[in-house]
Amino acid sequence: MAARKGPFVIVLMSDFLGLRGACDPLWLALGRARSRGHRALLISLTEPRPTPLDLVDFADDVDTARGLAKADQAARTQLLDELRQGARRSGAALIADPAPREVVVAWASAAFS
Prior knowledge:
Number of helices: 3
Number of strands: 3
Strand order of the largest sheet: 1-2-3
């Protein structure tokens, strides 16, 4: 990077699963990159999830499946809130759960701007 001078665009695409509460090193690194004039773009991808009814074989399990789906959605919402706050503090841009077309547009604009 020193030889090419920069500034650079850092693009990080991930589902960020398992990182809730453990992103401080990421924010520190992105903050340092931003302070050196680089730009940062985080793209938080989500994998398609089955509906609660796809998860059950018996009518008795529907309420359990719905409860699990709600808990999963609440955890995802909490993670996205953490990502938004951290990105804002570190000066990074965040695109959360984009449609495939949005990923292509974000990648192209970051790579070629």
